Amino acid sequence: MKSMRCTRQALGFTLIEVLVALAIVAIALMAGMQATNALTNTAARQSDLLLAHLCAENELTRIRLIKQMPVVGSSDSRCEQVGITFDVAVTVVPTPNPNFKRVDAHVKNGDVPVLKLSTVIGRF
């Protein structure tokens, strides 16, 4: 009879191989989470910009509808859009041509500046 030798066969992965695979998966998941976080922040910023733009446009349109030359100086107001309150500071400054004035609308969300929108208003 031939002698039978029992050889041990590898039936699974070694601990090192499992740890390396877990590390690779963890790194891939972290990269995915960072990308998702960046997209979420960008979407929130775009939403704030859109709402701030509405507030600034409302103030500039209000000044245009008065049909008078605005008085040089500053004024503050609050604007609520979709439950978010923005602070709008409107500044009117003279231009070299006395028939025109520049109007700047600075929109902030709390202490964070969000948008600055400017226009020129002339005599009617």
Spatial arrangement of strands, main beta sheet: 1-2-3-4
Termini Cα gap: 116 Å
Radius of gyration: 31 Å
Tell me the strand percentage band: 25-35%
The tally of helices reads 1
- Tell me the helix content: 40-55%
**Secondary-structure-derived class:** alpha+beta
Q: In one word, what is the shape?
A: rod-shaped
| Mean pLDDT, all residues | 90
Largest beta-sheet details: 4 strands, antiparallel
Account of the protein in words:
By secondary structure, the chain is an alpha+beta fold. The chain has one helix and four strands. The chain has one helix spanning 15-65; strands at 73-81, 84-94, 100-109, 112-122. A four-stranded antiparallel sheet has the order 1-2-3-4, covered by helices on one side.
Output the keywords.
single chain; alpha+beta; 4-stranded antiparallel β-sheet; 1 helix; 4 strands; 41% helix; rod-shaped
Give the arrangement of secondary structure elements:
Layout (H helix, E strand, L loop, with lengths): L14 H51 L7 E9 L2 E11 L5 E10 L2 E11 L2
Antiparallel strand pairs: 1-2, 2-3, 3-4
